[in-house]
Write a structure and sequence with these properties.
- This protein is α+β, with helices and mostly antiparallel strands.
- It contains eight helices and 25 strands.
- The protein has an eight-stranded antiparallel β-barrel with strand order 1-2-3-8-9-14-15-25.
- It is elongated and about 95 Å long.
- About 30% of the residues are buried.
């Protein structure tokens, strides 16, 4: 037992000598023998880094960057088949009169939301746009390898690595102040979808030459015009069930990075350093901008003669039965049901074209963006 104890003691002593020898070698070779902790700010947001050397010419860095949530407001047009929704809001009383004229009881089941809409539209500003707030939501980890190629100048470095984080890097949502008008639009669209099925005489519109005078027919579904699908059908986004309009921008979760840096000491003891980094983060393709609640509807132009009689285009089927943007007659019956394909997860960059207005300009720009620039400045401190 005594000999075994002496053996363990000698083994422990040898391990200590080996550890000291290894530590001496690591210090001599400049391998993981000191650590710098720093903070930085720049186009990647606010970040924190930890860096350690792996020899005289290589440094490894790990860190985290967070982009603060600031808001950029922008206006997006909301329209109907006959133009902006401002005119629809002003003319909503005509819709009320037309329903009454054709014997539709506003107190009947299914029309409660119309009465609610009518009350809401009384207090809505008659404008043709909705304001949305766009915010970055980018936060990501990073792992970088810095190469210091010059033996006698350790200020300059070249960097390769990657960022990793959630795929959603920005989002947009209609402002709270717009909820009232979006609630009214949803209620209007709900009633419009019920309109032909509530005893309306669907033939009077074209036989009497009064198609232009029917408010539902004239305006159709209301929403955000997103241009067209590849087959030419119109893309019209309606507010969600929560009376909000939303979009998300997504990129790859893993984002490679290359760049260069400059480091210099700020104190005589060389513990404080100034760090400057510049480079590009690769997005692995153009970003995707996803939206939900998009109707894919017939974009045929409506044609009338001088008297206002319907000649062709969206509005009637082959048997001259009235339908609309989002309602249609079930074949072989006199019953109407949902018409138009409602899609979710539509990519504005890849699925649509000819997006009008500011939204179109933004999508055109984003579709060309393949990299994200980095320029940051930071301060680090050597803790050992």
């Amino acid at each position: 037992m005594k000999k075994f104890s002496i053996f363990l003691l000698m083994l422990s002593f040898a391990a200590c000598l080996l550890a000291q020898d290894r530590a001496s070698v690591m210090k001599e070779k400049n391998i993981l023998n000191h650590m710098d902790v720093g903070v930085n700010v720049g186009t990647m947001g606010i970040g924190i880094d930890v860096a350690m050397p792996v020899g005289d010419y290589v440094r490894i860095r790990a860190g985290y960057n967070y982009m603060p949530r600031f808001t950029i407001n922008s206006d997006f047009n909301v329209e109907t088949r006959s133009g902006g929704i401002g005119n629809l809001i002003n003319k909503v009383g005509r819709i009320d009169d037309k329903l009454a004229e054709y014997g539709i009881d506003l107190n009947s089941p299914g029309f409660e939301e119309y009465k609610e809409m009518f009350e809401k539209f009384r207090n809505v500003e008659a404008k043709d746009y909705v304001t949305a707030g766009m915010k970055p939501c980018m936060h990501q980890f990073k792992l970088m390898i810095d190469v210091l190629p010059f033996r006698n100048n350790k200020h300059w470095s070249f960097t390769a690595g990657f960022f990793a984080g959630p795929s959603t890097v920005a989002d947009a949502c209609s402002l709270d102040k717009e909820t009232l008008i979006l609630e009214g639009i949803n209620a209007y669209n709900g009633v419009y979808a019920k309109y032909p099925n509530e005893g309306i005489n669907y033939t009077w519109l074209h036989t009497d030459g009064n198609a232009k005078d029917d408010p539902f027919y004239r305006y159709g579904v209301a929403g955000f015009n997103l241009g067209t699908f590849a087959d030419g059908d119109k893309a019209l986004m309606i507010p969600g069930k929560d009376n909000k309009a939303r979009a998300e921008m997504q990129v790859s979760k893993i984002r490679p990075y290359i760049g260069f840096g400059y480091n210099t000491h700020l104190s005589k003891n060389k513990k404080w350093q100034l760090n400057v980094d510049a480079g590009v983060m690769f997005l692995c393709g153009a970003p995707k901008i996803y939206v939900d609640n998009v109707y894919k509807i017939d974009a045929s132009p409506i044609r009338f003669d001088d008297s206002g009689k319907y000649l062709g285009g969206i509005g009637f089927d082959d048997d001259d039965f009235y339908y609309g943007d989002i309602v249609g007659r079930i074949p072989g019956t006199y019953t109407y049901g949902p018409y138009g394909e409602l899609r979710n997860h539509v990519d504005l960059v890849r699925d649509l074209k000819d997006i009008p207005g500011k939204a179109g300009n933004a999508v055109d720009f984003i579709s060309k963006v393949k990299v994200y620039p980095n320029l940051s400045i930071g301060i680090s401190y050597r803790i050992f």
